[in-house]
Amino acid sequence: MTVTEPLLDVRDLTIAFGGKPVVHSISLSIAPGETLGLVGESGSGKSATSFALMRLLPPSATITGSIRLEGHPILTLPEPQMRTLRGSAVSMIFQEPMTALNPVMRIGDQIGESLLAHHPRTPRAELRARVIAAMQEVGLPNPEQRLRDYPYQFSGGQRQRILIASALINRPRLLIADEPTTALDVTVQAQILDLLRKLRRTHNLSILFISHDLAVISQIADRVAVMQHGRIVETAATADLFRDPQHPYTRKLLASAPTMQTDRSKPLATLA
């Protein structure tokens, strides 16, 4: 039987600020084409982990352990080489697109900037065609007419699609999605999840999907890692975790989310 090497392999990752650890010796892996959900309450260390994977934490942060992307260690890479990997091998999208997009820059230029960062000699006609194709792929209507529009002229869901187009225009193998649907209403949220599933199938894309919402995680992840106070307390296949959670924190997380079967006469479970 052939054993597939992980695309991303994290071992004993510890992150500290001012000597105080906020992430404690965590390990996780993502196979090619797999989606791993990283779930936990606010302040559990999820976003710090994602920024560490992109090497975007401030100089005050101390990072120890091992991060390997396609077998290559990235924690020790010089910054110019790491800058080459960002956007080409691994990309990231964020919770609130209006803070990630430049409000005074046309969206066609912003998407094109991601391509030019790695292919600066791309001819103008090819650049425009690639940007239009990226906008079409993420379902943005009338891309030829909307290239010159600004972020404020798009809805929240459309702005998230712009970020996804920008993140994937260089065909990275790993996408880190940090709470990408939290600011969206449930209908648009479902559309973005459908889009990510489609792009994953089309490009054999691996995704680290970070959220505090177990309902969202259940719709997109193959496996789930549960994080509490900077530690991963449980990792399991999504169906197994929802059917038979092993850790008390996971059980409380599941019990704190209302469902159609929840007894409304009783309070929801709370997290200590």
UniProtKB/TrEMBL annotation:
Keywords assigned by UniProt, alphabetized: ATP-binding, Cell membrane, Membrane, Nucleotide-binding, Transport
Single GO BP term: peptide transport
Protein name as catalogued: ABC transporter related protein
Topology with respect to the bilayer: Peripheral membrane protein
Gene3D superfamilies per UniProt: P-loop containing nucleotide triphosphate hydrolases
Coiled-coil features, chain-numbered ranges: none
Family (UniProt): Belongs to the ABC transporter superfamily.
UniProt cross-references to SUPFAM superfamilies, sorted A to Z: P-loop containing nucleoside triphosphate hydrolases
Domain of life: Bacteria
Domain ABC transporter: 8-254
One annotated Gene Ontology cellular component of this protein: plasma membrane
UniProt-recorded Gene Ontology molecular function terms: ATP binding; ATP hydrolysis activity
One Pfam family it belongs to: ABC_tran
Subcellular compartments: Cell inner membrane
UniProt organism field: Granulicella tundricola (strain ATCC BAA-1859 / DSM 23138 / MP5ACTX9)
